Amino acid sequence: MPGPIFPGPGTAERHDHHQCQPGTGDDEDEDRAGMSEGFDRLWAELQPLGRNRTTGGYRRFSWGEADADVRAWFTDAAAARGLTVETDRNGNLWAWWGDPGPDAVVTGSHLDSVPDGGAFDGPLGVVSALAAVDELKRRGVRPDRPFAVTVFVEEEGARFGVPCLGSRLLTGAITAERALGLTDADGVTWERAMEQAGHDPARIGADPDLLGRIGVFIELHVEQGTALIHTDSAVGVAGSVWPHGRWRMDFTGQGDHAGTTRLADRKDPMLPFAQTVLAARAAAKAHDAVATIGKVHVAPNGTNAIPSRVRTWLDARAPDEATLRAVVDHVDAAARSAAAAHDVFHARYEESYTPVVDLDAALRDRVASVIGTADRPVPVLPTGAGHDAGVLASSVPTAMVFVRNPTGISHAPQEFARPDDCHQGVTALADVLADLLAEGRRGAETPGAAGRG
């Protein structure tokens, strides 16, 4: 039968499979081949689910049909490995190796996507976690601590607008009341969507008992940039997560006829919106940050009608919180000025905000020491992307492992990771997990114990 498909950096292009690093003996070669085949098999099972055949991207939105498919896939794959799967009150999935308990080592990521997103953002971490379980069992590892693989719901925020919603609910970073009222583009609430998917929304909210089980969290993720390309490294470790947020802006004018309304008489919200897009670019450039306006809703959205309202979203990120606030304030001031000049009403709403996250230094250094060598230390990278690990970091020690992306592109079909780099990522993750699982229950040297003091 044909080998598994790794979506390449285009909708048609495919990369040849690269050989893994040579082993030191026949047994090691066989073990490495077994791990590679296990990962490839899991990847081949998952990659068709939720894929848009026209664009080559993925449309896996929380509580939709594709989401149900990938959740079922994970449940089956975990059960096939002897893991016990449970769904928490917020819809996150947990696959336990042995009995759940305190001071657990947890790894995983997410399976949802942005509209027409890439194959690797999120799923690489989940598939690698399951493949790492296979690798640990192949090595004869018997965990001395509870262990789980997790899948967080609505990490991208693509359907309901708030990223990392599953981990935010778990930690109490967002209230149940606000989450229940979130709506998608069709006006369907989180509460209703959860019900339609067969879950009870009345139970959602902070879960201190479950959160208290987590001793340490490790998230493997495809790199969403080019740092590992420039360092010629297959894997890296995250040092910090930039502060970031999403702000909704509404420009409200007067809908009217495109042919009979004089320019001087118009209250066209599209004009201040357009000026705001340019202002966002200028503000980001001036402050050495990033800002994006990539989503817009126009009402009534007619070719021959002057818009009555333009609703858009600003995504902004910066190395520190003061810079981020300066960018947002710059954009907001420009939007208000442009709106006033065109006799249009402007309003801004903060939908989500995540402060700067410095991942646990002791755990980061430990992960780096396990993965790297004295001759070739592993790169430690900052990241401008938000992750569930960043949300959990305020409650439990967390670390992230990045796998090289040769295109440097993410949130698009061209997102990619070569098979041999994926395999090295699994090996690195398994090494880290084996090191953590060997500690036994909470002890003096556990990162979990140190991080909670």
Automatic annotation (TrEMBL):
Pfam families in UniProt: Peptidase_M20
This enzyme's EC code(s): 3.5.1.87
Keywords: Hydrolase, Metal-binding, Zinc
Single GO term (MF): metal ion binding
Keyword Zinc annotated: yes
Positions contributing to Zn(2+) 1 binding: H110, D121, H221
Residues the record lists as binding allantoate: R246, N304, R317
Domain of life: Bacteria
InterPro entries named in the record: Amidase_Cbmase (IPR010158), Bact_exopeptidase_dim_dom (IPR036264), Peptidase_M20 (IPR002933)
Keyword Cytoplasm: no
Binding residues annotated for Zn(2+) 2, in chain numbering: D121, E156, H411
Stretches for region Disordered: 1-34
Cofactor binding comment, as recorded: Binds 2 Zn(2+) ions per subunit.
Cofactor: Zn(2+)
Recorded family membership: Belongs to the peptidase M20 family.
Name of the featured protein: N-carbamoyl-L-amino-acid hydrolase
